[in-house]
């Protein structure tokens, strides 16, 4: 076969990858749906950084192995999503005060030869509220759900001066959140009364995600002088947010928290200010493709 007869190889688009390219990624199970690659690769491109961000599907129970691989391969950082947020913390050498209190991390980085774990969900949510010009101090906040994201959001709200009530299907789970926030615990059976007593309602459950048409809050409980935030970002316009808008309430979608928690991670890894606008555009473009 002569050189002229060799078929051309595939065309490779996107940033050039070299031996000097820094690698970061996200671990989860499943993880193929993650928007993190779109967010972070948009940020790297906007800042002209020779970095690439990949998704690694790591089976449940193997989070500590991923941290060991991070050390061996010298990965610049890892975002951590379900189901690894709790088990990864035990593999870290050091963790932030927030991660320790929540017993959950959502990203790790190498500091010298030590792995440092942190949780940026709560601060990311606060930044999304600030972006939407929602005041937190002194407000009565109702957090619906008691999982990892709910705990992070509840703690961040309480630290910022909100009076927090957590409502969950299992009262004991809500009580565990109340301990972290010095707030109140309630059952979802009392949701109408709880919403009536709130200024800010946060859906921290997966209800409304994907094609699900359900809402965790009855439409009849929504009103004009309420702020309603949903941590679900796919779809952006969830059934809860549509009903809240119809009732005249202010709404905050879940993309803001996703972008801002990722922006804090980007800054921790690179030492540069995060290009939030580019990250949001990257996430929106990826959502539009789905």
Give a short summary of the structure.
By secondary structure, the protein is an alpha/beta fold.
CATH class of the largest domain: Alpha Beta
The domain tally reads 2
CATH fold field value of the largest domain: Rossmann fold
Helix content: 25-40%
Number of strands: 12
**Poorly predicted sequence stretches spanning 5 or more consecutive residues:** 1-13
- Beta percentage is 15-25%
Which class of secondary structure composition applies to the elements?
alpha/beta
Mean pLDDT figure: 92
Oligomer: single chain
Distance between the termini: 43 Å
- Give the name of the CATH architecture of the largest domain: 3-Layer(aba) Sandwich
Write structural notes for this entry:
This protein is an alpha/beta fold and 290 residues long. It has 2 domains: 19-119 and 257-289, 3-Layer(aba) Sandwich (Rossmann fold), CATH 3.40.50; 122-253, NAD(P)-binding Rossmann-like Domain (Rossmann fold), CATH 3.40.50. Helices cover 37% and strands 19% of the residues. The strands form 2 sheets. The chain has a 6-stranded mixed β-sheet with strand order 2-1-3-5-6-4, sandwiched between helices. Strands 9-8-7-10-11-12 form a 6-stranded parallel β-sheet, with helices on both faces. Helix 1 packs across helix 10 (276-289), helix 4 (121-131) crosses helix 5 and helix 4 (121-131) packs across helix 9 (255-270). The protein is globular, with a radius of gyration of 20 Å. The termini are far apart. The model is unreliable at 1-13 (pLDDT under 50).
């Amino acid at each position: 076969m002569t050189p002229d007869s060799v078929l051309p190889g595939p065309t490779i688009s996107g940033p050039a990858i070299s031996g000097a390219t820094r690698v970061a990624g996200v671990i989860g199970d499943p993880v193929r749906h993650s928007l993190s690659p779109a967010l972070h690769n948009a940020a790297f491109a906007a800042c002209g950084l020779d970095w690439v961000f990949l998704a690694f599907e790591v089976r449940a129970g193997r989070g500590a192995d991923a941290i060991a691989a991070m050390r061996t391969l010298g990965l610049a950082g890892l975002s951590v999503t379900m189901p690894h947020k709790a088990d990864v913390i035990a593999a870290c050498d050091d963790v932030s005060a927030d991660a320790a209190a929540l017993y959950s991390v959502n990203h790790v980085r190498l500091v010298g030869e030590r792995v440092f774990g942190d949780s940026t969900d709560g601060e990311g949510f606060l930044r999304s509220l600030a972006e939407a010009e929602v005041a937190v101090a002194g407000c009565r906040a109702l957090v619906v759900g008691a999982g990892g994201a709910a705990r992070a959001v509840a703690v961040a709200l309480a630290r910022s001066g909100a009076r927090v009530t957590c409502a969950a299907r299992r009262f004991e789970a809500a009580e565990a959140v109340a301990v972290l926030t010095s707030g109140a615990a309630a059952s979802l059976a009392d949701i109408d009364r709880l919403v009536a007593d709130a200024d800010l309602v946060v859906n921290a459950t997966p209800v409304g995600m994907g094609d699900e048409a359900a809402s965790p809050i009855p439409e009849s409980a929504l009103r004009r002088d309420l702020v309603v935030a949903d941590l679900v970002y796919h779809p952006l316009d969830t059934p809860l947010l549509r009903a809240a808008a119809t009732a005249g309430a202010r709404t905050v979608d879940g993309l803001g928290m996703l972008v801002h928690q990722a922006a804090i991670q980007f800054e921790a890894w690179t030492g540069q200010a995060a290009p939030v606008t580019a990250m949001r555009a990257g996430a929106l473009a990826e959502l539009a493709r789905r």
